[in-house]
């Protein structure tokens, strides 16, 4: 194994977070909007750190910034919906990625959505598909909280191309 090069370390020899983000940014990820809440109190946030974990039982994992509103909302509610975005939904991804993103019913006012059957969290009907989940485990991991969740409901809504995030920009396949 080789030691880190000067390109991956800062002036004090520590591994560089900026260089880490740059290198990791070359790995394309799918783009989702995680929603939580109920029709009176809704929240959505763009998430690209989503993976399936197991098919027996059905489990997924999401990673949320520890000091973010979404982490607090998921922690309080104990459930969420992961909505997989299609290639034509870049504006939806941007809306829920903003630090000043809207919350509540107004955040979803011009989107087609319905409440998930178990939690009431929004299912975005123009997305590719969704997973309604119940948190089973949470773990601190650096500046993020990892949530492992049991899938309670899911469906494929469209067979379109997914929205991807690579090299700090939204794109399609």
Automatic annotation (TrEMBL):
<keyword id="KW-0560">Oxidoreductase</keyword>
<protein>
    <submittedName>
        <fullName>Flavin reductase (DIM6/NTAB) family NADH-FMN oxidoreductase RutF</fullName>
    </submittedName>
</protein>
<dbReference type="Pfam" id="PF01613">
    <property type="entry name" value="Flavin_Reduct"/>
</dbReference>
<dbReference type="InterPro" id="IPR050268">
    <property type="entry name" value="NADH-dep_flavin_reductase"/>
</dbReference>
<dbReference type="InterPro" id="IPR012349">
    <property type="entry name" value="Split_barrel_FMN-bd"/>
</dbReference>
<comment type="similarity">
    <text>Belongs to the non-flavoprotein flavin reductase family.</text>
</comment>
<feature type="domain" description="Flavin reductase like">
    <location>
        <begin position="24"/>
        <end position="172"/>
    </location>
</feature>
<dbReference type="InterPro" id="IPR002563">
    <property type="entry name" value="Flavin_Rdtase-like_dom"/>
</dbReference>
